[in-house]
Amino acid sequence: MDEQNDSVRAALRGNRLVCAALLVGQLMMAVVITVVHSLGISTIPLAPELGELFAWIGPGIGVGIIPLAYFLRRVIWQKGAGGSDAVVLQSFFAGNIAFQAMLEGAGLLNLTFWFITADALPYVPIVVVLILIGGVALRRGGPPSEG
After folding, report:
1. How many domains does the chain have?
2. Residue 94 structural domain
3. Which among 101, 96, 102 has a CA at the least distance from the CA of 68?
4. What residues contact 146, with CB distance under 8 A and at least 6 apart?
């Protein structure tokens, strides 16, 4: 029984490591963008209409992905509920990685828009919120208990 618990703990650590790497990737990209902008390296010339479009798309996707990520993670968790221990564990891991990947995708999109436009607002606050949500979810643990 201890071998099985050790195996589950190791798998959980691996899952959390993957999810944490998704968060750290966003932080590293933010550092790179900050350095590039502080060095005065010019960004891509951009039509004003495109910058305005980015200012709507980035935050819209960033905010919209949050409930969608929670919903998808919940659906994946529920698909594995009631199955064998291996199925429950697999759905838990898949749900967590899908959740973090969705948040990361929206975060990287906003970071890219920040890089292209050189305007921190509205992109950086959205990225901070997405990273915080991902960090809290990573720390929180497993799926809510049924019943």
Report:
1. 1
2. 2-140
3. 102
4. 81
